[in-house]
Amino acid sequence: MWIFHGRNARFASGVFPSEADGLAWAAQHRLSGSLSEYPVGDRLLRPGRS
């Protein structure tokens, strides 16, 4: 899954199934920010941390 964070946004601006979809959406709306890939079904934090 790809998550787009707009520049200066407090929360994610969009979630996309592919990098191409995220880039196309950002370009269509003339947004700048970062698009990062995250694993699906995998923990992002170590056990014992919240």
Mind sketching the topology for me?
Layout lengths: L1 E5 L7 E3 L2 H10 L4 E5 L13
Antiparallel strand pairs: 1-2, 1-3
Features:
alpha+beta; 50 residues; 26% strand; three-stranded antiparallel β-sheet; flat; 1 helix
Fold and architecture overview:
This protein has 50 residues and is α+β, with helices and mostly antiparallel strands. The chain has one helix and three strands, in the order ββαβ. The chain has one helix at residues 19-28, and strands at residues 2-6, 14-16, 33-37. The protein has a three-stranded antiparallel β-sheet with strand order 2-1-3, covered by helices on one side. A hairpin with a 7-residue loop joins strand 1 and strand 2 (14-16). The protein starts with a strand and ends in a 13-residue tail after the last strand.
Distance between the termini: 21 Å
Low-confidence stretches: none
Radius of gyration of CA atoms, rounded to a whole number: 12 Å
Largest sheet: 3 strands, antiparallel
Walk across the major sheet and give the strand order: 2-1-3
Number of strands: 3
What best-fitting shape do the alpha-carbon axes yield? Answer: flat
Estimated share of beta-strand residues: 25-35%
The average pLDDT score comes to 88
Q: What percent of residues adopt helix (DSSP H or I)?
A: 10-25%
Order of helices and strands: EEHE
Structural class: alpha+beta
